[in-house]
């Protein structure tokens, strides 16, 4: 009964190969929601360019093995594959080994997340549960619940209850 969600693959957005890839042990128990804290991108071309630059920043400047997040979502509801399912991310220090990191593209300190993005993430979570990548009883957090950060921004943080529960 999980709704279908279309994911723009790494190949489609032109991702560089990861330096290393660590498999998550078992299904993810927690979901951590982030924002990129960058201006929102409009349309797939602009979002894909943004993804390439985020990945470059994470790998070159921050020394990560790959783009930090497992998935990212654009304001139009397009979902982009980051590290993807079943892979340990680099998004919430000390909390990466049992979780899935999803980033909303944009800055949600003052902006409200779009209904399209919210609905896509809900579908993505349902799809993760139905494929066994995500525990059906997963707990969902904002990054700020787990670390000293404003992430995912006031407005997105306030919207998180809408993402809890998969019904
Ligand atoms: Zn974050």
UniProtKB/TrEMBL annotation:
Question: Which UniProt keywords are given for this protein, alphabetically ordered?
Answer: Disulfide bond, Immunity, Innate immunity, Signal
- Peptidoglycan recognition protein family domain location is 5-147
| Disulfide partners | 41-47
Q: Which GO terms describe its biological process?
A: innate immune response; peptidoglycan catabolic process
Provide the N-acetylmuramoyl-L-alanine amidase domain boundaries. 16-153
Keyword Electron transport listed? The answer is no
Superkingdom per UniProt: Eukaryota
Quote one Gene Ontology molecular function term. N-acetylmuramoyl-L-alanine amidase activity
* SMART domains according to UniProt: Ami_2, PGRP
Tell me which family the UniProt entry assigns to this protein.
Belongs to the N-acetylmuramoyl-L-alanine amidase 2 family.
> What is the protein named?
Uncharacterized protein
Native species of this protein? Perca fluviatilis (European perch)
